[in-house]
Task: inverse folding
C-alpha cells in the first residue's frame, strides 16, 4: 500500500508539473516590425509600443509613447497606421501621426532624459467607438486624452487628469492587463519603481468601451513580494491554465536588465519563471496586445537609451501561441 500511495503521489506531481507552462511554449521567437524591407526604427528613446486601431479600419495599428528624440527630456505620443493587414502588418515611421491636444502636439514631461517614459494604452472612455488614450508621464501623474471625434486618420484630443501623485516622483512606472481575472483590461500603477502595485479596475458600458476609475484613491493595492517586475508589468492568462492553477501570470521588465521576463504571482508571492527575450537596447518597455488579431495574446516592446542607441529603437513582437481570446479585443482596439 505504501508503494501504491507513493506511486499515486508521483503521478499526481507529474500531472501538476505538466500543467505549469514553459514560457518558450507560449510565444513565437521575437521579430522586428517594419514594412518588409526596412525595420520600424522610431528614433525616439525608451519607446512604449501599444496595440490600437485609432482609425477604426479593422487593422491593428501601433501607438508609441516616447521621448521626442534621442536627446530631450520631453516626450509625446505617435500613432502609426497599419498599411498592410493584421496577418502581415506593415508599419513605417514616416507615416506616423503625432497626437495633438487641440491644435498643438501633446507635450509630456518625462522627468529626465535617462529614465523618463511615456506609458500608453488605448481605451474608449465614453464607449463612443472613438479611440481615447490613457497615459502616464512616469514623473508625477497620469492623464486621459479624449478623442474629439472629428477625424479618424488625424485625431485631435482634449486632455483631462486620470490621477496624480501630487508630488514629483521619478520612479513612477505602469502596466496593465487583466489582474483580477474578469476578462477586462486594467491599468496598473507602479510607484517607486515597482515597490507597490496598485490596480485601477477596468470597466465597460454594456460590453463596450474601456475606462478606469479616476483618482489615486480609487486604485486597489496588490500584495506582491519576492521576484517581481519593477518597470512595467502586464497580466494575462497567457497559458489558459492560470486561473485553474490559482496563479496570475504576468510579463514585465526589471531594473538594470534588458530582459523581458515571465512571472507568476500566487498568494502575494511573485516568482520569476523564465526570460522570454533580451532586448538589444537599454531600458526596454513592454506591453501586451493581440497585434495580428488571431485571438492569441502577443508581447511587444521597444528600447533604446537616449543619446547613442538610435538604431536600437526598433519595435519587436513575440506572437502568442495559446488561444485565449475571451477579452483580447480590450487590449487591441476599442469596441466599435
Result:
Amino acid at each position: 500500500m505504501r508503494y501504491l500511495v507513493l506511486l499515486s503521489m508521483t503521478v499526481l506531481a507529474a500531472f501538476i508539473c505538466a500543467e505549469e507552462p514553459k514560457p518558450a511554449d507560449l510565444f513565437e521567437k521575437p521579430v522586428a516590425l517594419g514594412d518588409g524591407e526596412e525595420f520600424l526604427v522610431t528614433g525616439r528613446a525608451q519607446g512604449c509600443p501599444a496595440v490600437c486601431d485609432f482609425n477604426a479600419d479593422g487593422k491593428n495599428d501601433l501607438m508609441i509613447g516616447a521621448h521626442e528624440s534621442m536627446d530631450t527630456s520631453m516626450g509625446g505620443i505617435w500613432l502609426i497606421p497599419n498599411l498592410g493587414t493584421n496577418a502581415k502588418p506593415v508599419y513605417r515611421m514616416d507615416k506616423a501621426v503625432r497626437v495633438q491636444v487641440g491644435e498643438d502636439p501633446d507635450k509630456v514631461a518625462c522627468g529626465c532624459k535617462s529614465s523618463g517614459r511615456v506609458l500608453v494604452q488605448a481605451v474608449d472612455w465614453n464607449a463612443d467607438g472613438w479611440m481615447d488614450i490613457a497615459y502616464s508621464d512616469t514623473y508625477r501623474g497620469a492623464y486621459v486624452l479624449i478623442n474629439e471625434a472629428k477625424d479618424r486618420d488625424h485625431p485631435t484630443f482634449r486632455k483631462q487628469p486620470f490621477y496624480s501623485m501630487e508630488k514629483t516622483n521619478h520612479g513612477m512606472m505602469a502596466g496593465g492587463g487583466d489582474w483580477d481575472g474578469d476578462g477586462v483590461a486594467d491599468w496598473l500603477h507602479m510607484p517607486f519603481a515597482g515597490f507597490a502595485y496598485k490596480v485601477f479596475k477596468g470597466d465597460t458600458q454594456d460590453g463596450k468601451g474601456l475606462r478606469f476609475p479616476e483618482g489615486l484613491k480609487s486604485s486597489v493595492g496588490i500584495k506582491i513580494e519576492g521576484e517581481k517586475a519593477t518597470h512595467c508589468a502586464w497580466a494575462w492568462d497567457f497559458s489558459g491554465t492560470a486561473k485553474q492553477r490559482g496563479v496570475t501570470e504576468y510579463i514585465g521588465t526589471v531594473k538594470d536588465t534588458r530582459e523581458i521576463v515571465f512571472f507568476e504571482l500566487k498568494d502575494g508571492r511573485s516568482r520569476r519563471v523564465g526570460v522570454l527575450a533580451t532586448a538589444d537596447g537599454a531600458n526596454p518597455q513592454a506591453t501586451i496586445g493581440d497585434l495580428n488579431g488571431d485571438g492569441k495574446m502577443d508581447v511587444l516592446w521597444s528600447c533604446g537609451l537616449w543619446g547613442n542607441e538610435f538604431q536600437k529603437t526598433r519595435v519587436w513582437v513575440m506572437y502568442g501561441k495559446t488561444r485565449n481570446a475571451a477579452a483580447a479585443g480590450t487590449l487591441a482596439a476599442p469596441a466599435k
